[in-house]
Design brief:
The chain has 165 residues and is α+β, with helices and mostly antiparallel strands. It contains five helices and five strands, in the order H-H-E-E-H-E-H-E-E-H.
């Protein structure tokens, strides 16, 4: 009799514990889509005063890593203004992204964003003076400045919510 009672108690305890264990299996909050990420970052960089438009792309940057590509359309490409714009846009992108990017690649185009704007066009201004003025570690290629995660975190600090990566 004692064995039967133990089996019943074991079954009761197990059935009570299963729902509690399954809570750990419940899906967490839904990660934002690439469209949502692009919209969030575009809104953040377009809040920079000299930015008149932008294009944002989310890309795979290796196994399990993502990167961001931002193309800015600006109304002032004087060296001082452009350096301040790139600095503010990199910071806005770093803070607005819902994930920690492996790197951010950024370029700037003089003038308003055309209707047929694409990332593929090589119409950006030279960012070498900007990189030098900001003294930011990165690499330049065809008018695009690419800044890695270590340089971004050193310059702009910890991401607002690293738990969403």
């Amino acid at each position: 009799m004692n064995t039967r009672r133990q089996r019943i108690m074991g079954a009761v305890i197990a059935s009570a514990a299963i729902p509690g264990l399954l809570v750990g299996c419940a899906p967490g909050p839904k990660a934002p889509s690439n469209d949502e990420i692009r919209a969030s970052i575009a809104a953040a960089v377009e809040a920079v005063p000299t930015v008149t438009g932008s294009l944002v792309n989310v890309a795979i940057a290796g196994v399990g890593a993502r990167s961001l590509r931002v193309k800015l359309y600006v109304d002032d490409v004087s060296p001082t203004s452009l350096a301040a714009t790139i600095d503010a846009a990199l910071k806005a992108t770093w803070q607005a992204s819902s994930f920690t990017p492996g790197h951010i690649s950024i370029s700037a185009v003089d003038g308003p964003k055309p209707q047929d704007a694409t990332m593929a066009s090589l119409d950006g201004v030279d960012l070498a003076p900007v990189q030098q003025a900001l003294a930011i570690e990165g690499r330049l290629n065809l008018g695009v400045l690419t800044v890695g995660v270590l340089a971004l975190s050193a310059r702009y600090g910890a991401r607002p919510d690293p738990a969403v990566d």
